[in-house]
Amino acid sequence: MTATQAFIAACANALGASHVLTDAHDTEPYLVDWRKRYRGEACAVLLPADTTQVAAIVRLAREHRIAIVPQGGNTGLVGGATPDASGAQAVISLKRLNRIRDVDTHNNTITVEAGVVLADIQARADGAQRLFPLSLAAEGSCTIGGNLSTNAGGTGVLRYGNTRELCLGLEVVTPQGEIWDGLRGLRKDNTGYDLRDLFIGAEGTLGIITAAVMKLHPAPVAEVTALAGLASPHAALDFLSLAQHHAGALLTGFELMSDFSMRLVGKHFPQLRYPFGEPHAQTVLLELSDSESAEHARALFERLMEEALEKGIVENAVVAENLAQSQAFWGLREHIPLAQAEEGLNIKHDIAVPISSIGRFIEETDAIIAKTVPGVRMVTFGHLGDGNLHYNVQAPEGVDAKRFLDEFQTPINALVYDQVHRHRGSISAEHGIGQLKVDEAMHYKSPVEVRLMQTIKAALDPDNLMNPGKVVRWNGTPAKENIA
After folding, report:
1. 344-422 — its CATH code?
2. What pTM was estimated for this model as a whole?
3. Which CATH number is associated with domain 3-93?
């Protein structure tokens, strides 16, 4: 019996044979990433029921030297939860760890297992008259373990922060198969190294998150949404400053959408009507969450819009009159990726630059790319309030999209990432590194930063069995120099 066969047999004994999948038909959904960009192979897909079983699997993997790939809802965009093509790795799906363990309304926390779907946490919080503010397009299928592992952002980052800021404590299975119980719902704990932050954003390369204590917030009394048309991203930055001055912490959403983004949505989803009679170079969707009343929020919005129009910052604006109109405004934003998919293959970038640099970054980079590929169409949208842009490049009209990607993806990526680096930004803002961007991450990080990451990986996972090949390049030997 080979080591792999012995590992599979031991897992079947630990989990029950029905929770160890080896048949190709059964394993297929776990081997392909959401964008179908990556397809791997696995010796088995394992479905543990609780943290103790996860720890048992990890100990068996270490004993038999089997690399493991943790997986949540499999909605990631960078191949971080997809095994390699060797067929030697095992996928650990955490979808059976789907219990909400506790809701503490006095402490404003909810304790959840890693496989709980994000929308279910939102609903449970709402039932307790609380708000769990993490919100993103995949919330009906993504899981909180994946959100934590990639430090997901979403539309509420401006007010509430990334997933990291929403987490107070973790339960983690270490690479040695031990269980670290850090499920402390504390806002203050100054007793040494912050181990929690090591695992958030690590994409399962340092350990497997099995449960978390997450912050809840008071449910807002009213949410009011508006759209504004502007002449440039520079005007959008001025509008953001004005909105923050007027609304302060009530400003929970501030989304930037380019003219072509809106035209693309109108082309493929004509039922989502753009509310302005003429196009605008940029459209901003902003939302206020008010703890007082809808009337208070609308009055604040009206004062903000009046000043923005008087100063010439905003060209046109409309405030949602009801919930249906608010949902329609958000529909314009949320359908941009779907419209892109309908239009054809495109080159995607999930980047961040300092907020003050966004206008310059867009203008400079648009010009460089247009010179490189005349006629290219830019689909720029994102969370302006935290500097996160989805800076996507669509093929020129009439050009075969696949041929465009084959020819230009590598040089355009280099152009964009060089610009990001020049503006002291990040090549990944909320999607993670996975296997898609690991080489670029190693290239753009300083030698010191790379060595520090490799040192942490070597210290916690010396056998390099935890999701190898993701986030950081490391061959299992002590880091001595930058590998880029």
Report:
1. 3.30.70.2740
2. 0.92
3. 3.30.43.10
Same-fold call for 3-93 versus 100-218:
no
Between 3.20.20.140, 3.40.50.360, 2.60.120.560, 3.30.70.2190, what CATH number should domain 222-335 receive? Answer: 3.30.70.2190
pLDDT at 478 over 80: no
| Fold classified for 100-218 | 3.30.465
- Compute the average pLDDT of residues 43-47: 98
Residue with tokens 């054809």: 344
* Alpha-carbon gap, residue 455 to 474, rounded angstroms: 9
Q: How many CB atoms lie within 10 A of CB 36?
A: 7
Token match 């690399």: residue? 67
Which has the closest alpha carbon to 67: 484, 481, 476? 476
What is the distance of C-alpha 428 from the center of its chain?
9
Q: Structural domain boundaries of the chain?
A: 3-93, 100-218, 222-335, 344-422, 445-484
Tell me the one-letter amino acid at 372.
T
The residue that leads in pLDDT, 132 or 324, is: 132
Helix H, strand E, coil C: the string for the chain is: CCHHHHHHHHHHHHHCHHHEECCHHHHHHHCECCCCCCECCCCEEECCCCHHHHHHHHHHHHHHCCCEEEECCCCCCCCCCCCCCCCCCEEEECCCCCCEEEEECCCCEEEEECCCEHHHHHHHHHHCCEECCCCCCCCCCCEHHHHHHHCCCCCCHHHHCCHHHHEEEEEEECCCCCEEEECCCCCCCCCCCCHHHHHCCCCCCCCEEEEEEEECEECCCEEEEEEEEECCHHHHHHHHHHHHHHHHHHEEEEEEEEHHHHHHHHHHCCCCCCCCCCCCCEEEEEEEEECCCHHHHHHHHHHHHHHHHHCCCCCEEEECCCHHHHHHHHHHHHCHHHHHHHHCCEECCEEECCHHHHHHHHHHHHHHHHHHCCCCEEEEEEEHHHCEEEEEEECCCCCCHHHHHHHHHHHHHHHHHHHHHHCCCECCCCCCCCCCCHHHHHHHCCHHHHHHHHHHHHHHCCCCCECCCCCCCCCCCCCCCCCC
Query: Per the structure block, which two tokens stand in for 103?
Result: 């809701």
Instruction: Look at residues 413, 261, 371 and name the one whose alpha carbon lies nearest to residue 363.
Output: 371
Tell me what pLDDT residue 373 has: 93
- The rounded percent of the chain whose pLDDT value lies above 90 is 85
Q: On the CB side of 77, how many CA atoms lie within 13 Å of its CA? A: 15
Which residues, including other chains, have CB under 8 Å from residue 116's CB and lie 6 or more apart? 97, 98, 99, 100, 143, 144
